[in-house]
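Action item from last meeting closed. Structure (524 res):
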């Protein structure tokens, strides 16, 4: 059995994932926030808990653990809130900017960055006790690599006898054997470390290569991470704007770029919740008009124009398996099959800093969850044209699929069209009439009789709601029975600051396997 100390544990996402690894027992969790400590204690009652400022604690008096997970505060390192950071220069005292002159460092920012120093401090203290920590992981945002003190900080850990490795990982590409997948795109920095004297290195390829379909090889492969520029070792995923992509390991296809399997946002949305008010009729709790911001409306319009492409989907007892676009001819008619007209929902960020063209479809993972509510879901008509065999609920405007959850609050909202404003089907024969596409289609004969009259529902007729806390929890990968307390704002902040459990599970699995020498099984 390997004991674990989770420093800056927060709500306990890292603890949940690490404790899911066979042979790992959570011994101690620490955090400065009393509410976070209470939540953690509710879910890990057998572990000890320290509530206080770690930087002021007598770390030498802390118990020694085999495994050490540390997640120092990340907001001071990231520019996610639109604040230009100066972490690539010294963060002590007064900085000098050639354009602005002397610039005083925010003391709160300086203190938060200093929490990184608690990692080598604990390792040094335990070695002085005569029994060093066997392995651990430091987690943060990818921008922490730009810290001008990063090299010195890393060497302080290595001089204690540890080997280290930098790992850039997106939560949507992780599959925990116990905790499962994460329906959220969340890029993170990890630095695993393990005692060199163990004589074994973790098998990182086994745990960090996601499954992906290679069109060149026509099969599923274990994708390999490839950096776009030589020398770059930390960054975010993305073929267009990221620093790395995944490629097929086979040379026969010339290492084709591949897209790893991901879990869509639809899997964490609670479609049973009321869809919310129509955007054009929004009022606050006192009945006063409460319109959405112009920037949010612009993002919705841009998203609808870019992504809202209808599909003809097989339904109700058909042999066909795949949807086709409305730009293609109708699939072969049979005497039994029926088709559904589907328009995918959108995920739209509502944060002020977000650009106009930032909406994505719900077929993709959630955007990174922060501590604030900054993401909405837009749902145009989700129409089902069935003649038996399908659920009528698929015609409701709120039946659709979710984007990243962050630490600054609930950033997700849900928008759907009014069921009265749908596409129309026009029967173009002598006595034909138009009918809403959310009603059953007329009898299909041997001739082409129906035309789809497109038409996007006006934004004012769509509905809008913010994500519920349990949807955010699901988007982070927390288990369904995880206990929380506090206001909605407190819960959103706690979830957004957390580590998706699947990420800690796979990293700790690799380390435990190397320490113990016994193989563990990754997710199938």
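Sequence:
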């Amino acid at each position: 059995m390997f004991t674990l100390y989770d420093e800056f544990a927060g709500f306990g996402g890292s603890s949940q994932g690490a404790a899911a690894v066979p042979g790992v027992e959570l011994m101690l969790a620490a955090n400065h926030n009393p509410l976070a400590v209470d939540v953690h204690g509710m879910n890990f009652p057998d572990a000890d808990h320290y509530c206080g400022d770690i930087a002021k604690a007598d770390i030498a008096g802390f118990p020694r653990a085999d495994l050490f997970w540390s997640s120092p505060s990340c907001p001071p390192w990231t520019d996610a809130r639109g604040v230009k950071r100066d972490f690539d220069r010294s963060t002590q005292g007064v900085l000098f900017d050639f354009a602005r002159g002397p610039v005083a460092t925010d003391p709160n920012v300086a203190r938060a960055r200093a929490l990184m120093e608690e990692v080598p401090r604990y390792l040094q203290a335990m070695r002085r006790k005569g029994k060093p920590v066997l392995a651990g992981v430091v987690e943060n945002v990818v921008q922490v690599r730009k810290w001008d003190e990063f090299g010195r900080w890393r060497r302080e850990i290595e001089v204690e006898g540890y080997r280290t490795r930098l790992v850039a990982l997106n939560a949507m590409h992780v599959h925990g054997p116990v905790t499962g997948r994460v329906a959220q795109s969340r890029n993170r920095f990890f630095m695993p470390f393990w005692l060199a004297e163990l004589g074994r290195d973790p098998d990182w390829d086994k745990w960090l290569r996601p499954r992906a379909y290679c069109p060149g090889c026509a099969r599923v492969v274990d994708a390999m991470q490839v950096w776009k520029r030589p020398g770059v070792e930390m960054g975010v995923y993305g073929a267009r704007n990221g620093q790395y992509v995944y490629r097929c390991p086979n040379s026969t296809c010339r290492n084709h770029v591949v897209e790893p399997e991901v879990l869509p946002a639809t899997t964490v949305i609670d479609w049973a919740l009321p869809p919310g008010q129509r955007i054009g009729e929004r009022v606050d709790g006192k009945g006063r008009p409460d319109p959405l911001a112009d920037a949010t409306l612009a993002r919705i319009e841009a998203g609808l124009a870019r992504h809202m492409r209808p599909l003809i989907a097989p339904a109700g007892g058909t042999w066909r398996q795949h949807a086709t676009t409305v730009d293609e001819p109708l699939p072969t008619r049979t005497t039994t099959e029926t088709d559904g007209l589907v328009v995918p929902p959108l995920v739209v960020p509502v944060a002020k800093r977000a650009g106009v063209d930032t909406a994505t479809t719900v077929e993709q993972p959630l955007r990174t969850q922060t501590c604030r509510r900054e993401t909405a879901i837009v749902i145009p008509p989700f129409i089902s044209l069935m003649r038996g065999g399908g659920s009528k609920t698929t015609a409701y405007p709120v039946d659709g699929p979710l984007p990243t959850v962050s630490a600054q609050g609930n950033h997700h909202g849900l928008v759907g069209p009014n069921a009265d404003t749908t596409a129309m089907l026009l029967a173009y024969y002598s006595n034909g009439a138009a009918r809403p596409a959310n009603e059953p289609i007329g009898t299909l004969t041997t001739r082409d009789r129906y035309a789809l009259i497109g038409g996007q529902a006006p934004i004012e007729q769509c509905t809008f709601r913010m994500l519920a806390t349990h949807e955010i929890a699901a988007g982070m990968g927390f288990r369904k029975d995880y206990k929380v307390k506090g206001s909605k704002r407190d819960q959103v902040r706690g979830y957004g600051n957390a580590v998706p459990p699947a990420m800690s599970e796979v990293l700790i699995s690799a380390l435990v396997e190397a320490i113990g020498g016994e193989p563990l099984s990754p997710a199938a």
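Note appended to the action item: The first helix runs from residue 13 to 19.
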